[in-house]
Amino acid sequence: MEKEVVSKNFIEQIIDKDLEEGHCSTVHTRFPPEPNGYLHIGHAKSIILNAGLAKKYGGKFNLRFDDTNPTKEKTEFVESIKADVEWLGADWEDRLFFASDYFDQMYEGAVKLIKKGKAYVCDLTPDEIREYRGTLKAPGKDSPFRSRSVEENLQLFEDMKNGKCKDGEKVLRAKIDMSSPNINMRDPILYRVARMTHHNTGDKWCIYPMYDFAHPIEDAIEGITHSICTLEFEDHRPLYDWVVKELEYENPPKQIEFAKLYLTNVITGKRYIKKLVEDGIVDGWDDPRLVSIAALKRRGFTPESIRMFVDLVGVSKSNSSVDYAMLEYCIREDLKLKKPRMMAVLDPIKLVIDNYPEGQVEYFEVANNQENPEMGSRKVPFSRELYIDREDFMEEPPKKYFRLFPGNEVRLMNAYFVKCESFVKDETGKVTEIHCTYDPATRSGSGFTERKVKGTIHWVPAEFAVKAEVRLYENIVNEEEGVRNEDGELNLNPNSLTVLKECYLEPALAEAKTYDSFQFVRNGYFCVDAKDSKEGSLVFNRIVSLKSSFKIQK
């Protein structure tokens, strides 16, 4: 038998070559989030890619927080990110790090650059620095402070560290090339003065390194072999390489860029989500209408479904957008053989079987998942009064309507045939109760009847039903108008959340715990909300409907 050839993505091909040529003996990757917000589905791709490569090559994976900007960073975000990375199955073992752990080494690195004549303290204002930098078409010009002596720069940098300079008064810049075609190499800023309390180091520092200086140092200190990041950092790679070279790190890490994951018609920008939270449009960063990892988890998505999604998207060098329907496809595929199929009535109307004995209760053996016999079965009670969905009855039905209407007979799923005899309306003309008769010879599984009916409807027993709140979701963005309008404001969908307060579920669901998920017959997949559910008061979020617009191309 021929061995199956598995094609490798371009990153794996680079790693294979590096191992072969001795760039490294052990693959070491990392996921380096900034703790300034919750992670979203795009970050999941990076987490799964970095952790997956380390696992595939028998290497190591680090979780490291790039906490170099304390104005936007919070311990809340640190804890949420740790929970998300762990939930996705990325194991950092004992390698949890913070950029701020290395602030002393970064300061020493800056001093080393000054001594080598590769960095200087600059007094230009931010506007002047931008003016001196030049444009994509015109080279920049040297700062008048570029020729300061090493001794003067060392003293001024120490003054910056010791709090003798005002915020923004001075910066430390790399001395590279103001005429470089890559603007990132035109004497970029390495340090700025900023009196801010840091979540990890408190008030120890009043100067903070810039990301482009800090990041390669962090990677080098931790022994990262492959610094895998998204395409917007491609133009920053020469600066990354310059830093590790000038600081003379042995076996410097190699930066590799891949395409970001873009989902159509979703909101991922932290600024926009923050405003939605502050305006009370969503109930937090984990609102199930968002695509933060915490929101997807709360809604009922699984780590397996997200890993399947990332695998389908693949790894490439070209940016592209992916339809949200692909993510929905993945959760359906993951849940369809794992979850029990339960009966739930979301818009209830009472059905009374007039000729069924009062007080009698029968139990029907119902398969938990018809497609997966290994999931076994459960017993569902049946009695005289039931709830069915309002859409399963019509007083005056159109053609080809096969559910209940006066004189018509249907099967109650897993139970008996019933025939509609009459119905009751309230003073507004709304139907409140349906009266039927049943045929005892049609008990499900008995094999006694040869009659056929075209319609089958689901039900729950009124006496034993579990009352619950059910939340139905649509995209929070108005898909027809796009994510943002001309003035940059979000085009929000006013119908993104529908709350159904009076839903009835079959009794087995009384034991459901937070994050438990089920298929509700005909209605989709649902998950017990982890935030608002309480004992005796269940709230279910619809994860996804049963129908999909997405097809896998074979």
UniProtKB/TrEMBL annotation:
GO cellular component: cytosol
Name the UniProt record assigns to this protein: Glutamine--tRNA ligase
Gene Ontology terms, MF aspect: ATP binding; glutamine-tRNA ligase activity
EC number(s) on file: 6.1.1.18
Keyword Nuclease: no
Domain tRNA synthetases class I (E and Q) anti-codon binding as annotated: residue spans: 456-529
Any single GO BP term: glutamyl-tRNA aminoacylation
Keywords, sorted A to Z: Aminoacyl-tRNA synthetase, ATP-binding, Cytoplasm, Ligase, Nucleotide-binding, Protein biosynthesis
Source organism per UniProt: Anaerobium acetethylicum
Cross-referenced NCBIfam families: glnS (TIGR00440), PRK14703.1 (NF011291)
Residues annotated as binding ATP: E34, P35, N36, H40, I41, G42, H43, A44, K45, S46, T230
The protein's assembly and partners: Monomer.
Record domain Glutamyl/glutaminyl-tRNA synthetase class Ib anti-codon binding: where: 340-439
Stored InterPro entries: aa-tRNA-synth_I_CS (IPR001412), Gln-tRNA-synth (IPR004514), Gln/Glu-tRNA_Ligase (IPR050132), Gln_tRNA_ligase_bac (IPR022861), Glu/Gln-tRNA-synth (IPR000924), Glu/Gln-tRNA-synth_Ib_cat-dom (IPR020058), Glu/Gln-tRNA-synth_Ib_codon-bd (IPR020059), Glu_tRNA_lig_a-bdl (IPR020061)
Catalytic activity: tRNA(Gln) + L-glutamine + ATP = L-glutaminyl-tRNA(Gln) + AMP + diphosphate
Places the protein is found: Cytoplasm
Pfam family, one: tRNA-synt_1c
Domain Glutamyl/glutaminyl-tRNA synthetase class Ib catalytic: 27-336
Binding locations of L-glutamine: D66, Y211
Entry similarity comment: Belongs to the class-I aminoacyl-tRNA synthetase family.
Motif range ('HIGH' region): 33-43
